[in-house]
Amino acid sequence: MDMGQILFISTRLVLGAAASFFAIMLWSKTRDAAWMLMVIGIIIAYIDIVYSILDFFGIGGGNFFVIGSVPIISFILSPLQLIFFIAAFAVMVRRQSRQN
User: Fold this and answer.
1) Beta partners for 66?
2) What is this structure's pTM?
3) Which among 2, 5, 19, 33 is least buried, having the fewest CB atoms inside 10 angstroms?
C-alpha cells in the first residue's frame, strides 16, 4: 500500500467519523424528522466507508450473498444512504410547501 492509499483511507475515516460524531450530537439535540433522516443517512454512509475499507483489506464480511459480482451488503448500503437523504429532502420540501 502506497502513501496515497494510506492518505485516502485515513481521510475517509477521519472525515466520516467527524461527520458521524456531529450527526449524533445533532440527533440528541433535535427531534425533527428531516434532520433525523439526514443523521441516519450520514451514519449509514460511515458504515459504508468502514465496510469498504475492511473489504479493501480483505476483512469484509465475505461474499456469501451476491447479486452478480456485487456483495448484497454493498448493494444495500450505497443506495440506502441516498434513500434517507431523499426522504429528508422530501420532508423539508413538503414542510416548505405547506408554509407557503
Assistant:
1) 71
2) 0.87
3) 2
